[in-house]
Amino acid sequence: GRAKVDDGRYEVSLEMASVNKRHLEVSIRLPSGFQEVDGPLRREVSSRVSRGQVTVSVMIRPIVSELCVPKINWAWVEGRMVALKAICEEYESPFPRDKACLEVWDHAESYCGEPEVVSPELEELVKKAFYNAYESFDEKRRAEGAFLAADLRARVETLCQTLAMISEASKGQVDLIKVRLQDLVAKHVPSLATDDRVLREVVLYADKADCSEEIARIDHHLNHLKEAFTHEGPQGKLLEFILQELLREFNTLGAKTIVKTVSTATVLAKTELEKMREQVQNVE
Fold first, then answer.
1. Strands 52-62 and 24-29
2. How far apart are CA 101 and CA 107, in angstroms?
3. 267 pLDDT exceeds 80?
4. How far apart are CA 33 and CA 43, in angstroms?
5. How far apart are CA 161 and CA 222, in angstroms?
């Protein structure tokens, strides 16, 4: 965002830009002598932005309405001339008076700069420039946010469809595991096929392979994710946390399942989640 304002005495040009960053980092660039404005500007940025690397560049130019003759720093000018004359004498060269005058005339050290004083009026002018620039900055930020929200919503719908398929394919997995374990016991240790202790272990192992709890938690997290898109205010860190929980549940689900289609769907879901986590880094 950019803005330019003036009050007849000063013209303030301000530019505000940001790039993605997990936390808030504010950088204020001010002309020399106007560092008193840094604190108020930093507070204004922090009250409006909660995430990203934000850079605010400020240019302050006095508006001269009448003839202004700068005060010459004669001590520096004369010292420069004496040094140049000494060099010319040492090398027996003619003293280039015209060139020397032009050289010191164009040098900033030849003039005594008046110390700048940040008046309350100038501070308010800088804030006004900031407010105007922030409106443009925020408009662009909201447009980008709407684009990211649409992309994330589409990916959430893809995950919901994947979860529905996983839920359907996982039905009967516990019974399937029980039958497989019982067949293995009967094949390799026939004498223990009817042992109650073995049957109890088979039931416990098969119960641990039940994916219904993970499926229920994933469904809850996906609904929470959808709700987060509709809330006002910063949501980036909340979205990041929900995606982290979803990834953990899908990892557990993939480790438990013995159904090939569920394993494949879980891998695809985790790939989609990683893409979403990259996008959420751009969300405040």
1. parallel
2. 10
3. yes
4. 19
5. 11
